[in-house]
Amino acid sequence: MINKIKSLSKKIANIDARTIGLLAILIVAISVTYSSAQIIHKNFLLQQEITKLQQENALQAQINKNQNLKNQYYTTDAYLDIAARRYFNKAAPGEKVYLVPQEVAMANTIPLPEGTAAGNDDSEPKFIKNWRLWIDFLSGKPIEIQS
After folding, report:
1. What are phi and psi of 57, to 5 degrees?
2. I need a surface site. Which of 21, 40, 97, 110 has the fewest CB within 10 A?
3. What does the radius of gyration of the chain's CA atoms come to, in whole angstroms?
4. Considering the chain, what is the average pLDDT of its residues?
5. Phi, psi dihedral angles at 22 (to 5 degrees)
6. What pLDDT, in 10s, does the model give residues 8-41?
7. Mean pLDDT confidence for 118-143
8. What is the pTM of this model?
9. Burial level of 85, CB count in 10 A (0-12/13-18/19+)?
10. Nearest 5 degrees, angle CA 17-CA 18-CA 20?
C-alpha cells in the first residue's frame, strides 16, 4: 500500500507544468460552458414566461376593448330602438306589431340542409392543415385546438 502511494506521488511529481496548466484551462473552460448553458436555459424559460404574460395581457386588452365597444353600442339610439321593440313590443309611429306564437313561426320555417353544419371545414386536405399548424407554431402564433 505504501509502495502504491509512493509510486503515485512520483508520477504526480513527474507531471509537466504545461500539462497542469492545460488541465486547469480545460477545467475553467468546462465550468464556463456549463454556467453559460445554465444562464441561457434560465433566460429561455423567463422569455417563455414573458411571452405568455404578454399574450395574456394582449388578450385582456382586446376583451376590454370589445366590452367598451359593447357599452358604447348600448348607449346608442339604435340599440334603444331595438330593445324597445324586442322587450316591450313597441313600434315606431306608423308601424303595426303582430305577435306570432312560436309554434306557428317554427311551423313555417325551412329546415337547413344537413351537410352545411358550422365547423365542417373539410375543404382543404389534412396535410395542408398540418403544415399550417406547424407554420403557426414556429411563427409563435397561438394555436387553436380543433376538436
Report:
1. -65, -45
2. 110
3. 37
4. 85
5. -65, -40
6. 888 877 778 888 889 899 999 999 999 999 999 9
7. 76
8. 0.45
9. middle
10. 65
End-to-end CA distance of the chain: 72
Task: Please report the pLDDT score of residue 140 as a whole number.
Answer: 78
Between 90 and 49, residue with greater pLDDT: 49
Report residue 82 as a C-alpha cell: 331595438
DSSP assignment string, the chain: -HHHHHHHHHHHHTS-HHHHHHHHHHHHHHHHHHHHHHHHHHHHHHHHHHHHHHHHHHHHHHHHHHHHHHHHHHTSHHHHHHHHHHHH----TT-------HHHHHHTPPPPPTT--TT---SS-HHHHHHHHHHHHHHTPPPPPP-
Counted domains in the chain: 1
Residue 40 carries which side chain, given as an amino acid letter? I
- Here the cell at position 40 is 441561457
> Residue 93: which domain range?
13-107
What grid cell was written down for 91?
313600434
Specify whether the backbone of 107 is left (phi greater than 0), alpha (psi in -120 to 50) or beta: alpha
The CA distance from 30 to 38, in Å, is 12
Cell 353600442 sits at which residue?
73
Residue 82: pLDDT over 60: yes
